[in-house]
Amino acid sequence: MGFKTLDNIAQLNEIDTLSKNKKQIIFKHSTRCSVSTFSKKVLLSEFSDDMEKKFDVYYLDLLNYREVSNKIANHYGVYHESPQILIISDGKCIYDASHDDVSLASALASVN
What we know:
Helices cover 41% and strands 24% of the residues.
């Protein structure tokens, strides 16, 4: 799975623009949290080559980029949580889930 690193606030404008043609996924991960590590494994196991053609997936290490994580919460109108998955379409967050609910299968089923 080809995660794109999300490490600066300016990338949110890029994500918004790209989301007009292709849904964008943001995965917020805490490298010190076992639940977050498990969620990352779930995402990796669910991801397929077909999905990679349909979505871009951004990975945010929120411990190193807390400012970006806070901006995501503000920009998309969601609560800050970790781990967390968001789906962005047309510049808006159309889905977010956290903790044990982080799953690409569940996320994509709810937005399709």
